[in-house]
Amino acid sequence: MSDPNKYTVGWICAITTESVAAQLFLDEKHDGPEYVATGDNNDYTLGKVGKHNVVIAVLPDGEYGVSSATAVVKDLQHTFVNVRIILMVGIAGGAPSPKTDVRLGDIVVSALRNGKPSVLQYDFGKATQGQEFKQTGFLSPPPTVLRTAISGLRAQYEADCGHRLEEAIDSVLKKKTRLQNKYGRPHQSTDRLYKSDFTHPLASDDSCVVVCGDDPSIAMTRPERGEDENTVAIHYGLVASANKLMKDAVVRDKFAKENDVLCFEMEAAGLMNQCPCLVIRGICDYSDTHKNKEWQGYAAMAAAAYAKDLLYRIHPKKVEEEKKFSEALSDIAEQHRAISEEHLLVQKGIFRQRLSDKQEECLQLFRLTASDKNATYEWYKSRVEDRLEGTCQWFLTHPHFNKWLKQKSGPLLVSADPGCGKSVLAKYLIDHGLKSEFNKPLNNPKENLLPTICYFFFQDQDQNTVCQALCALLHQLLSQMPSLIEHAMREYKLNGRALINTPESLWKILTAAGDDPEAGSVILVLDALDECADGERRDLIKRLKDFLDRKRQGERKVKCLLTSRPYEIIFSEFQEMLDYFPYIRIPGEEESETISQEVNLVIKHRTSQLARMKRLSDEVNRHLNQKLLSIPHATYLWVYLVFDYLKEEDFKKTVKGVDSAMATLPRNVNQAYEKILRKSKDHPMVRKALTIIFAASRPLSLAEMNAAVNTDRKTLSIEDLDLEGEEDFKSRLRSWCGLFVSVHNGKIYFLHQTAREFLQGSTLPAIVPVEPECWQQSIIAQEAHALLMEICQIYLIITVWKFDSLFSDVEQANQCLSGLTFLRYSAQYWPLHLGESNIDNTAHLESILETTTLAHLSKQLNRSSETLGRCYRQSRNIDQLWMASSVAELIISITPKDSPDLIEHIRNFGIQLATRYERLGPSDDLRRSIKAGVIVFSAHESHPSYTAMMNNIVRWPEMRFSEWIDTVDFGQAIELTRVVSESIPDGHSSQAECLNSLSSLLRLQYLLTGTNMDLGEAIATAKVVIEITDENHPSYSEYSTNYVRVLGDHLSSLHRMRHPGYAVDIAGNSLPTAPHAHPDLVEYLSILDDTLDTLPKKPFATARPEGAVNIARDN
């Protein structure tokens, strides 16, 4: 059998004829794959073309189109994880035109032309009143390595005065004489192109040669190709793809004329939506009613012959350098996200009007909530296994589900124990179940009004915050209903990019959008509510209850399906709603038997797969099936783990052999986990790897994990790290941990949330002592954080030592930093792990340092931190900034509180934090920077750096506001400037500048929000600045300008005030203190004068202040 990991090229065929042609052009044919992934239903042929290992897959018999191709590709990626490029090779209908002489037997290769993409999904577009239908389904181009090979092959053909494809086809068929009739080239007389308005007689199945003839009035006359031309021509350009067969010559000609389409087929769009792909098609008919099966075999051979020549042009190294299939999927999903959204709108009959740049910016912001840009909410759903055909059907017939379906609004709570398939059920409902049920007239009398479905899958320690959930829901809702974007724009203008971290504003948007009549029916699906972050779950439930409350909803048509483990802390919160809203418990008493039957379906399916893989006899297969079906209370997760165990178990292929294997079979999930981990031979490294995964603040990449697991107290330099290549390390991790961990998108995860819970131990003494080799409850959280904190600190220290000699060469330092894969994580998260470990860092570091003292290390680190800060200012390399600030914090953590150097270290750390805030904007960095400045000042009021440091801190929020127009930064600026001003004693040189900044910020906030309280504080603060500043001070003019401006703003507001006499009173009391020589004062006094003239003649409740009136009249 062949190892699937060795195959890098995928070759997809739609029909058997294409698959046969592909196999005929293999240089070698290999045995079938050693194994296939769970749920992979494809049939594969393996072989070699040139130096490439190729896997050929064909669509299921009788299935065609985009969705079938998508399914085949999806299954292939799970088994052949190292596939880098995909070829879609087969037949198509040609689109001849005056511009391109496409004939039967010719080849079309998808290629960019005149700036147009290579594949067009032509049943995918939008209609605008008064305009023609516009196609929007242009899909991504083939990978660069394939496009480069196409160019090289074209040049080769031209230099050789033509290709040799006809000879290659003849050579192959000489060895397979029985295939010559079907796959050989038909007689040229059967290649007939009819005029577009002439259709094949409906009642006849006979060929065109018999029925239609070659009358010049209906058949197009075309010149024969010359002797200096190949019989098979190769055309490069646009391939049109759709879920339907093109049989309309008029429509064909329209696409050929307007879009330069060369051929039509039914599968490419399904592949291009899934992976980087090149489409190669042999022409077998002309996309009209005159279908011609005679040419299908030869057309398939021509396409396969070209594909072989193309692979010979590509060096295997170039293929290996391409992204893996799984990595490319994330990029493709991101590229096609907008297209998929628009396609959905077309299907729902909604025209998505073009959003403004600001609206589009706001919409896209809701996607940017994951730490990894590839790990979108769609990706988390795609990680969930697809349900087995025939399962989940019980849910669709459940009376509580159907009751909820018919309700206008409200929640449906679904609870189940771990491993019972909640997420699989949620995915099925999102992708198929809800849509199919709403298509039934009984559930949806207005059949054209399908609901808008939005979802979010909570994932512990990864995708688990309320803000992430709300952003994902809003992105889906606003993408599908663009008219609702206006509800987000006000909050976006107020909060800017901080909106995605402002739950109050996100709830406002969701509520307003749900209340909008244009929203129609909306279904929100939230999976694994129990995995929401501990500190946020209670608030989420409260908000959901308010959002779904019948009394508050009015006409809102929003339903919510929630899945969770049956935790009392969650369901007690919903208890009052359960009286009038449905609830489903899995397995409940009524559903237990039905669900057991569905689990048994999975067991039977997996047993048959195992029997094929191990070549079990029918008798042994039946016996194994009976044994497994007899085990009570099986869950989906247990089935998954057990079959992985049996797949690895080398039992005899007899009835007794099955009985022996069953005797050692784990009876529950925890036993299965224990068996998986006890198989490992490298126990210490397994424990270290699992401890790191357990404590990590986010999923680590393979490269990060490789560095972390190889770092220990013996690591004295970067060179000491004994790192394998990524693929080798991935294999080693698999050998250590087996199925217990999984790798998705290059990141490492526990197989299931229950795996983490299996490992987690208690700090309390165990009632029953744990065996030394027992894995269950073997990891204590504090100890895990201590280990990862130590690894981070060691990695950070050896990095500093490595680059001490390189910091003067910024370019070389940047280059070396890029290779340190664990640096960013170490710098960012070691303080968090220190806090969770609850240990004394000074004592801990002293215990692990062998080659230096703590005092020497502290001085070395301080010098490096300052140097790194300078390097960052030159290079703007963010890794240098993280290192500088992280090293500065590490120094403080190991410096004794009575050390004379502590204040200097705190000052340096404060500067690094402020710089980090300036670059990245986290408000916590600014607060900590101010705190550092206050500590420095309280220790040394005359510190030379204090004034400059405090003034810079004050100005950064204001600068960020002017750059981002972000009122969250603006509000922080005011709040933090108050903190700074309060910490500065009266008479200090920084006081006036700080207060002037505060007044300016308050004035700007007044102009933005119109709040008179802000303006009043701005006037009072500016007045204090004038009073404490000498007129000869270089900044006096700036301060007086600010004061007069705030007074002018106040005067300008007189017309808007309800009691203008009172307003004049205030202005009159303020104006006498303004600098009389200021050039703008006359202008503002003129405003006051005009205001006084417009006041009513009758007496005011408040008399006009004589001082103000006199000043106004005198000027």
From TrEMBL:
Alphabetized InterPro entries for the sequence: DUF7069 (IPR055497), NACHT_NTPase (IPR007111), NLR-like (IPR053137), NPHP3-like_N (IPR056884), Nucleoside_phosphorylase_sf (IPR035994), P-loop_NTPase (IPR027417)
Keyword line: Repeat
Pfam families recorded: DUF7069 (PF23239), NPHP3_N (PF24883)
One GO process term, biological-process aspect: nucleoside metabolic process
NACHT domain sequence ranges: 410-566
UniProt GO MF annotations: catalytic activity
Protein name (database record): NACHT domain-containing protein
